[in-house]
């Protein structure tokens, strides 16, 4: 399979394509047209075809794309054909909810460790894992061979924790902490600010209400 360099905007849309293809597969569909798949995802057919062209995926005229084949192709590009191990640092309400998320395995992620500093949380069992103290962070990463971390610490602890994760060998961080963290160029970090996302939703909802 020939994969051209992928724009970040295309990468951001691939999980949506994969999710929609999974829904089609569960309904017994074997093929899907670009128009149908684009409608499910909420993009234009032209945009979908352009995105999939980066993967070397081309539909057949009059038939469309093979659902299972395209699923495998996108999964391979996203690195889902090999299991990725992750740790969660910060087992408050959000961290606890993420730890019990049932979708990790379906997306080839294995949760291998939980870390916190709260004495009331350390030593408890969440989703089959004993929560370890933050002083053992490097050991937890090494024992689980984790390469990805989910960060849900308070803002004051976010950067120091990110630094320790990077030093321990983590190469990807999903950061829910209310502070941007800085990492080396060879480490990927994605910032998730729920408050900001809600503000954006509220802005657009108000605009649409005013227009109607």
Summarize the structure in words.
By secondary structure, this protein is of the alpha/beta class. It folds into 2 domains: 8-78, Winged helix-like DNA-binding domain superfamily/Winged helix DNA-binding domain (Arc Repressor Mutant, subunit A); 84-195, NAD(P)-binding Rossmann-like Domain (Rossmann fold). 44% of the residues lie in helices and 17% in strands. It contains 8 helices and 9 strands. The chain is globular and about 60 Å long. The mean pLDDT is 91.
Summarize the structure.
Belongs to the transcriptional regulatory Rex family. With 212 residues, the chain is an alpha/beta fold.
Radius of gyration: 20 Å
Identify the CATH architecture of the largest domain: 3-Layer(aba) Sandwich
Largest sheet: 7 strands, mixed
Segments where pLDDT lies below 50 for 5+ residues?
Answer: none
Apparent shape: globular
What is the domain total for the residues?
Answer: 2
Q: Mean of residue pLDDT? A: 91
How many DSSP H or I helices? 8
Strand content: 15-25%
């Amino acid at each position: 399979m020939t994969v051209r360099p992928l724009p970040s905007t295309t990468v951001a849309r691939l999980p949506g394509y994969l999710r929609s293809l999974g829904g089609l597969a569960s309904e017994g569909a074997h093929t899907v047209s670009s128009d149908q798949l684009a409608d499910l995802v909420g993009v234009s057919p032209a945009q979908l075809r352009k995105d999939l062209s980066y993967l070397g995926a081309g539909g057949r005229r009059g038939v469309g794309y093979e659902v299972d084949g395209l699923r495998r192709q996108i999964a391979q590009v996203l690195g889902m054909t090999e299991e990725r191990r992750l740790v969660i640092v910060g087992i408050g309400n959000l961290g606890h909810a993420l730890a019990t998320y049932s979708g990790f395995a379906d997306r080839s992620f294995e949760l291998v460790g939980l870390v916190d500093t709260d004495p009331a949380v350390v030593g408890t069992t969440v989703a089959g894992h004993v929560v370890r103290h933050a002083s053992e962070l490097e050991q937890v990463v090494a024992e689980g061979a984790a390469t990805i971390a989910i960060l849900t610490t308070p803002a004051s602890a976010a950067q120091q924790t990110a630094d320790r994760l990077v030093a321990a060998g983590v190469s990807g961080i999903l950061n829910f902490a209310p502070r941007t963290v800085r990492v080396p160029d060879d480490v990927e970090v994605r910032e998730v600010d729920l408050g900001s996302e809600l503000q954006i939703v509220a802005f657009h909802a108000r605009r649409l209400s005013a227009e109607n």
